[in-house]
């Protein structure tokens, strides 16, 4: 059982995380100098249509004193069954609950239905500036596929910095 003090800390953390997500969308959607690159980043989020996420990366959205109101309640209930409290943090679930291992535009349909697993995904639909793109790609898989291929091609041309100039992380959450 958690103490009231722990719940207060978690709630504060969630508020900070929501602010950070809003700031991220502001940067991705509105910066004119890097708009072309940022558009690529929005497109690359769709890579989450295939893959897994550890329960600990989204547990704050499905439980605690203030679950994320942007998440579909039945999806949140399903996730609570898959990731109950005190589960091994290495347990993971599919990022796309509908088509599991297919690379398709279902990711965007999931966002429309409040089924974005990570807050960084769902914010693309909850923010009115990026919602039109989500809606368009949910309706048109051909347009989505073309946009994703273009984004991956651009990403492949980015020069990777190594040694003293950069850091290729073994774990994306931690500097080497």
Automatic annotation (TrEMBL):
Keywords: Calcium, Disulfide bond, Heme, Hydrogen peroxide, Iron, Metal-binding, Oxidoreductase, Peroxidase, Pyrrolidone carboxylic acid. Binds 1 heme b (iron(II)-protoporphyrin IX) group per subunit. Binds 2 calcium ions per subunit. Residues 21-176 form the Plant heme peroxidase family profile domain. It is found in: Secreted. The keyword Heme applies. PANTHER family: PEROXIDASE, PTHR31517. Belongs to the peroxidase family. This is Plant heme peroxidase family profile domain-containing protein.
